[in-house]
Amino acid sequence: MNTRVASVDDAPDVAGGTTRRAAAAAGVLFGAAVAPECFVDDAYCAAVAEHFSMIEPENALKWAAVRPSRDVFDFAPGDAVVRAARANGQRVRGHVLAWHAYNPGWLRRGRFEPSELCHMLQHHVETVAGHYAGDIFAWDVVNEVFADGASGRMRASMWYDRPGIGFAGQGTRYVEQLFRWARAAAPDALLFYNDDPSRSGSTATAMLGMVADFLHRGVPVDGVGLQLHLDLATDLPQLEDELGQFGALGVELHVTELDVAIPTDAARQPVNAHDLERQADIYRAVVAACLRLPQCTAIQTWGVDDGHSWIPTFSHDAFGAALLLDASYRRKPAYRAVADALEAAAALRGAPGPTQ
Ligand code: XIL
Question: Which of 6, 177, 212, 259 is deepest in the core (most CB within 10 A)?
């Protein structure tokens, strides 16, 4: 247990090993979503290299970024992530070939027919997954296909039914099609379905049902990406129970977007220093629960540090400070908690790391 009293104003806590080393000893990857436009910042780059063995472009491979217009693929930012990973000896995850959000205006307002949209999506998967074949070892093929709320239904979206690619009203059929295209385009990449079971119990149920059905019918899915955007109200026993159900699917599990949001003030600082300890406890419990599952092979935080996190913007500055490093790249109590959980798993799993 970390018993020191937490404050982000404390001197940097550099005692103990890094998450990167501890993850290697546990035989898992420890990653961060990164923004290649931040690579001009030496401190950012140093933090990326020191703490993580895997990186994933946070936005650079989403449609709105990679498809500035119909005929143009802009791979420069994604390629910069691949180059950084090579220099740092890291693996690269890909995110994401199809999502309802972050699509460019020309696509959203294009009034395309389903058949045209179908061709464009197939071409996109072939071109993007093909471009990164051999560099990206695992892809989030598709993201968040189930509706928000408790219905567990398919989400209305341009790929599903507005107008969709020709499978409107046919449930997960369009998702299946995406996996088949992705397998053909990048036969050596692991293919993941990425979503957040912590959104609601019905999201978790729908995810489990779809992946079990795909496995049963031979649809090429290799893993589930568990986003895990959490906060201090997270129901840990329920989450641990759900993680066990995902483990029982038998496919690989990657925690893809872990963060634990806490209330912050106008200066984006935690309102209550005690929350940093509660945040650390949640991080520790989640990492430990994942690592108890042999299927869990990678854990990733959604961003490098609190200065580069989507939570403040997304929550209109009500929440923030959700990551392991503060905005000055100092290790927070949650960092030590995660490193401890990784070290404990290393002792249990006893496996040498697949990468450094
Ligand atoms: C978020 C990014 O962090 C933001 O910068 C962007 O403006 C919107 O998307 N689930 C996902 C991620 O799968 O792609 C989202 O990332 C966060 C929620």
Answer: 259
Phi, psi of 298 (to 5 degrees): -155, 145
State the Cα–Cα distance between residues 16 and 14, nearest whole angstrom: 6
The number of beta carbons lying within 10 Å of the beta carbon of residue 351 is 14
| Cα distances (Å, whole numbers) of residue 187 to 11, 130, 221, 251, 270 | 48, 9, 12, 17, 45
User: Which residue among the candidates 144, 176, 242, 277 is catalytic per the annotation?
Assistant: 144
239-279 pLDDT per residue, tens? 999 999 999 999 999 999 999 999 999 999 999 999 999 99
Beta bridge partners of 301: 32, 258
Tokens describing residue 224? 């589930």
pLDDT in tens, 158-202: 999 999 999 999 999 999 999 999 999 999 999 999 999 998 889
Q: What is the DSSP string of 123-176?
A: HHHHHHHHHTTTTEEEEEEEE--BPSSS--PBPP-TTTTSS-SS-TTSTTHHHH
For ligand 1, the distance from its centroid to the CA atom of residue 302, given in whole angstroms, is 8
What pTM does this model have? 0.94
Q: Is 310 in the pocket of ligand 1 (CB under 6 A)?
A: yes
